[in-house]
Design brief:
single chain; 127 residues; mainly alpha; two-stranded antiparallel ribbon; 2 strands
């Protein structure tokens, strides 16, 4: 796989292959979730809001789990802080756990049925 999908002419900004495919997966998963919500007469706006909150919490959880996993190495080399957190990768387990916590918290605050909305959205998490 080529790490750079394409480069924007004139400014030299590279579109990374992995990031592009992750973005496409998020958009397709959201679209499928909205269609499933419409089919069973649930609120698509709640699905969209829940998905965006889950995505944001998931990014924080993935970065946080990565930092926890490699904390000893980071402390021993002195690479601790915001710069190190942004430079590192992410781990899917932390992302999924914190995304579910964020989505469930949103549903509880909005007083929506948690099991129903998780049933609508969760099969698309694989994308």
């Amino acid at each position: 796989m080529h790490p750079d999908l394409w480069t924007v002419p004139g400014i030299g900004f590279s579109i990374r292959s992995y990031g592009f495919i992750v973005g496409v997966g998020i958009i397709v998963a959201l679209w499928i979730s909205i269609e499933r919500a419409k089919r069973i007469k649930c609120d698509p706006a709640t699905v969209t809001s829940m998905s965006i909150i889950g995505l944001l919490f998931g990014i924080v959880g993935a970065k946080g789990m990565h930092q926890l996993h490699y904390a000893w190495n980071a402390f021993s080399t002195g690479e601790v802080g915001v710069k190190a957190a942004l430079a590192g990768g992410g781990e899917i387990l932390g992302g999924i756990v914190l995304a579910v916590v964020g989505a469930v918290g949103y549903l509880l605050i909005r007083r929506k049925p948690v099991r129903l909305y998780l049933d609508i959205v969760f099969p698309q998490v694989i994308l």
